[in-house]
Amino acid sequence: MNFWFKKDKWMTSAYNTFICLIGCSMGDFGTILYFQYFTDIKSIMIIMPIAIINGIITSIILETIILLKNMPFKDALKMATGMSLISMIAMELAMNFTDIILEGSLILSLSSIIPVLIVGFIVPWPYNYWRLVKYNKKCCG
């Protein structure tokens, strides 16, 4: 009954989700901006998969850097790559689809960044909480 009411776990999972959001958004936004300003490619079917892959890669890099404070590089990289891909993919898809809904395409603008980040945080957060409570496994952080 009280599975969903553990305040400390919500706080931990919020922090973990936020770290993932920072990492994912760096690669995702960077990719979208690159295509937006430096190419003539506008196809969502080309840009979205590249943005998702780059978002996951930058999230793993950021997580590895954070984990280096507490463990050797090899262990940090292993733990970072073992993070939940379900959470990262859900975050990436939520961010990209929100951008498409708001802008009509994968285009970043000042008016879309905040809603994209909010949705990117909210969508995977309950899953990260569930995973933390059920398996004591953090997605990130």
Write the layout of secondary structure elements.
Layout: H1 7-38, H2 44-67, H3 73-81, H4 85-103, H5 110-122, H6 125-135
Helix pairs in contact: 1-2, 1-4, 1-6, 2-3, 2-4, 4-5
Write up this protein.
The protein contains six helices and no strands. By secondary structure, it is mainly α. The protein has one domain (2-135). Helix 1 crosses helix 2 (44-67) and helix 4 (85-103) runs antiparallel to helix 5. It starts with 6 loop residues before the first helix and ends in a 6-residue tail after the last helix. The model has no long low-confidence stretch (mean pLDDT 92).
Oligomer: single chain
Total strands: 0
Share of residues in helices: over 70%
Straight-line N-to-C gap: 27 Å
Total of helices: 6
Element-level helix/strand string:
HHHHHH
| Domain count | 1
Strand content: under 5%
Q: Which regions are unreliable across 5 or more consecutive residues at pLDDT < 50?
A: none
- Major β-sheet annotation: none
Q: What shape does the CA trace take?
A: globular
- What is the average per-residue confidence, as pLDDT, rounded to a whole number? 92
State Rg. 16 Å
State the secondary-structure class: mainly alpha
Write a brief structural summary:
This protein is mainly alpha-helical and 141 residues long.
Keyword list:
141 residues, mainly alpha, 6 helices
